[in-house]
Amino acid sequence: MTQHDVRGVGIEVESYGSEAAPAFLLIRGLSTQLIQWPDVFVGGLVEAGFRVVVFDNRDCGLSAKFDAAGTPSIQDLLSGNADVPYTLTDMARDTVGVLDALEIEKAHVAGISLGGMVTQHLAISHGERFHTATSIMSSSGAPGLPTATPEAMASLTARADDPDDREKVIELNMKGQRVIGSPGFPMSEEELRSYCERAYDRCYCPGGSARQMAAVLTDATRADRLSEISIPFQVLHGSEDPLIPLGCGEDTAKRVSGAALHTIKGMGHDISDANSPHVVERLIAFAKANAK
């Protein structure tokens, strides 16, 4: 893995496959790291002939942290009064900076959850850098959309009393993943524990998660700009997503002219070994149908 200076922000990047192959850029969701893309997900794209680029979003993993900005409280986040040290637009610019650092002129891009929101910004404002864009398990952020179940929202905001208590943090994160995970593609206990342990041991940064959430909650104009997208765009969403319900994905697709919507039956709000092939199949088909 390599750290790149992206407009003054250190971004951790990893690349798989031939550098000569068409690039596929993947963007993770809230507080999750590049190591949390399943091997079968990345490997499926590489085997299909793509160069896969993954990275840690700012304030997560091994990328730069914004601790000096402080940590907004859960109450401030939910009331919309949190200070915002950066925006989703800034995170989209980070993504373009990753392409610049790797000297990639144009790529396919797909993002999950928060990463899907960043993908929408990329398609709106930086479409010339992308062949296709895919928003996965995400939302336009428009008012009045279906909301998370109480259990899913609680899992998103839950924090261990002691961030240094490794086992309690891991157990809490495992509990949260069980709530938002895919009933049709359940993770095994071994996969789930490994997913949470590796993330904690590499970097646990609850302050970064709160600041990323502040960027999401204050991004108020994205929905109205989705009609500006002119590149091939698709939406993938799970039928059983308790955190960002299917109606949010349906709304996003309706706002983008010509967008394709694919619902994955039984999928919740996660990318696992079991559901990866279903998502990757859609990404490959869409990319190859719009290859240039």
Mean pLDDT: 95
Taken in chain order, the helices and strands follow as EEEHEHHEHEHHHHHEHEH
Just give the CATH class. Alpha Beta
- The N- to C-terminal Cα distance equals 29 Å
CATH fold annotation: Rossmann fold
Q: What is the CATH H-level superfamily?
A: Alpha/Beta hydrolase fold, catalytic domain
The tally of domains stands at 1
Low-confidence stretches: none
Largest sheet: 8 strands, mixed
Coarse morphology: globular
- Strand fraction equals 15-25%
Number of strands: 8
Could you state the oligomeric state of the chains shown?
A: single chain
Evaluate the radius of gyration: 17 Å
Content-based structural category? alpha/beta
Helicity level, as a percent range? Answer: 40-55%
Q: What is the level-2 CATH architecture name?
A: 3-Layer(aba) Sandwich
Polypeptide structure, described:
It is a single chain. The chain is an alpha/beta fold and 292 residues long. The chain has a single domain (2-289), classed as Alpha/Beta hydrolase fold, catalytic domain (Rossmann fold, 3-Layer(aba) Sandwich). The protein has helices at 39-47, 74-79, 88-101, 114-125, 150-157, 166-180, 189-202, 206-217, 222-225, 246-255, 276-289, and strands at 2-6, 9-16, 23-27, 51-55, 107-112, 130-136, 233-238, 260-264. Strands 1-2-4-3-5-6-7-8 form an eight-stranded mixed beta sheet, with helices on both faces. Strand 5, helix 4 (114-125) and strand 6 (130-136) form a beta-alpha-beta unit. Helix 1 (39-47) packs parallel to helix 11 (276-289). The radius of gyration is 17 Å and the shape is globular.
